[in-house]
Amino acid sequence: MKRNFNHLILAVLLAFTAPGFAGEVKPADAAGQPVTEQAAVTEQAAVNQETDIDINNPIEKAFAKDFEMAQATPEINYVNEAYLEAWKAEMANAAAVVKKSLPHQDDGKRVDEYVAVGSALADKAFELEMLNWISDPEAPIADRSFGTGATGGAMLAQARVYKQVTLNLITHYQANPDMAYSFIYSGKGADLEKLRAQ
Q1: Three-state SS for 141?
Q2: Which DSSP symbol is given to 189?
Q3: How far apart are the C-alpha atoms of 7 and 187, rounded to whole Å?
Q4: What percent of the chain has pLDDT over 70?
Q5: Which H/E stretch holds residue 166?
Q6: Would you say residue 86 has pLDDT above 70?
Q7: Are the CB atoms for 184 and 93 separated by under 8 Å?
Q8: Residue 172 and residue 17: Cα distance in Å, rounded?
Q9: How many helices (H) and strands (E) are present in the chain, helices listed first?
């Protein structure tokens, strides 16, 4: 029970640390001083950057066409699996980049823990989505299997958690204005044409 509660807390924290959540322009700074117009513009630029990275990154751009084109269940599964793997690899890279930027080596353990908990949450998102798909609502529970779309939906749910963890790491890294994260993903998406040609 406590473990489930911890996962719920983590999910809520991930949601509220998402890029764009904490970026509203505030009328005063932490000391209660009025925020100058330039400071408000700078803060809004940071919010725009966080929002832009959510949709304006090489992974989203590469997979946009694939998500539109995929129609049959095997195609959807193929695209979702490739998308999942892209975000999983990017998360590992973002964590390594953040760890290298930390002034204290012990802080890297916290990044490792964050990634491990995020990965566990992604696994739970997969399980939850699998339970959401049922082939026959009339059959007794013991006889129910998952529907044909369950695996693809579950992989997409898992990928979304990996994406959020990655974007959170990047946002923390880029909190220093001298740091700019570079995505390692350079693929062209799932390449559905290749799958269809088989």
Answers
A1: helix
A2: T
A3: 32
A4: 66
A5: helix 150-173
A6: yes
A7: yes
A8: 10
A9: 7, 0
Three-class DSSP category at 28: strand
- Joined together, the tokens standing for residue 128 give 């939850």
Identify whether the C-beta of residue 192 lies closer than 8 Å to the C-beta of residue 78: yes
**Distance, CA of 110 to CA of 118 (rounded, Å):** 12
Residues contacting residue 100 through CB under 8 Å, at least 6 positions apart: none
Which amino acid type is present at position 119?
Answer: S
Distances (CA, A) of 92 to 33, 89, 124: 40, 5, 19
Structure tokens at 100: 């290298």
Q: How many residues does the chain have?
A: 198
| Token pair 């749910």 in the structure block, residue | 157
Q: pLDDT of 99-146, one tens digit each?
A: 999 998 889 999 999 999 999 999 999 998 888 766 555 555 555 555
CB burial readout 44-65, b (16+ within 10 A) else e: eebbebbeebeeebbbbebbee
